[in-house]
Each structure stands twice: as structure tokens, then as C-alpha cells.
């Protein structure tokens, strides 16, 4: 499992462990109905974390509570992760974004590029990304400055 998926799963588990607080925070105008938190047609199962709109207002049903945060806050993924981190009171020093670009293992593994979160990438990481994806380093530097990577 990739480091990103591990972080996502850990955050989802933490959010699920505090789901009663989470739904009240995201949807203070909702109400409890049985094992669910209801806001209009949106239904959030308080045991499993499964959520979705029973009238088709959401594209699908999901157990991903980070996606619920994105849906409720109308924000992008990066913003949602930062807000979730703050809401869960996870210190930024514990937020592991210092992974490196690695190429290891068999030929198939060598073709797969494992990327850092790229909030503060090194020149080496940008160079590797540039050469592997045929993107000019200048374009990557602009993307980093604007917070797109």
C-alpha cells in the first residue's frame, strides 16, 4: 500500500472514530435519525461512515470521510487535508510530507514513479519529475509557487 493510501486510511479511521463530532461540525443544521445524520437528502451513517444523497444529489455513496469534508466545505483535496489535520489537532510536525522520489526494485517498479507530496520539493525531485513526465522545470516551479503540486 502506498504511503498516500496509508495516510488517507489513517485519517479516515480517525474521522470515523469521531464521526458524531464530525457531522455536527460539518452539518450543524442536521439531525439524528436512528443511526444516521440527516441534512436534507444527505444521509451519513454514524456507524460505518457511509454517506450519500438518497435523491441522487451526490454522484455515489462513499465511506471516504475526507470526500465528505470536501463535499461539505466545497474545497479542494489539499485544502481539505489541511483542514482535517487542524480539526483533528495533528501537529504539522507530525504531518509526514517528506517522502522522496524513489526508483527501486524490478523493471516494472522502476517505471513506476513514487512522488513526494511536493509542497517543498528539492531541485533533484523536480528534475526527476521533469525528465520522467516531460514537463519543463520552469513549469513545475511555477506550479509549486502557486500551490498546484
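-> sequence recovered:
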Amino acid at each position: 500500500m502506498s504511503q498516500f493510501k496509508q495516510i488517507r486510511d489513517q485519517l479516515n479511521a480517525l474521522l470515523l472514530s469521531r464521526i458524531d463530532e464530525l457531522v455536527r461540525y460539518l452539518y450543524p443544521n442536521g439531525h439524528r435519525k436512528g443511526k444516521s445524520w440527516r441534512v436534507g437528502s444527505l444521509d451519513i451513517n454514524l456507524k460505518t461512515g457511509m454517506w450519500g444523497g438518497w435523491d441522487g444529489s451526490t454522484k455515489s455513496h462513499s465511506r471516504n470521510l475526507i470526500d465528505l469534508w470536501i463535499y461539505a466545505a466545497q474545497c479542494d483535496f489539499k485544502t481539505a487535508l489541511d483542514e482535517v489535520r487542524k480539526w483533528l489537532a495533528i501537529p504539522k510536525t507530525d504531518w509526514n510530507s517528506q517522502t522522496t522520489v524513489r526508483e527501486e526494485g524490478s523493471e516494472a517498479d522502476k517505471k513506476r514513479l513514487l512522488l513526494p507530496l511536493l509542497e517543498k520539493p528539492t531541485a533533484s525531485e523536480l528534475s526527476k519529475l521533469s525528465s520522467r513526465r516531460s514537463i519543463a522545470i520552469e513549469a513545475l516551479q511555477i506550479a509549486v509557487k502557486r500551490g498546484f503540486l
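The chain has seven helices and four strands.
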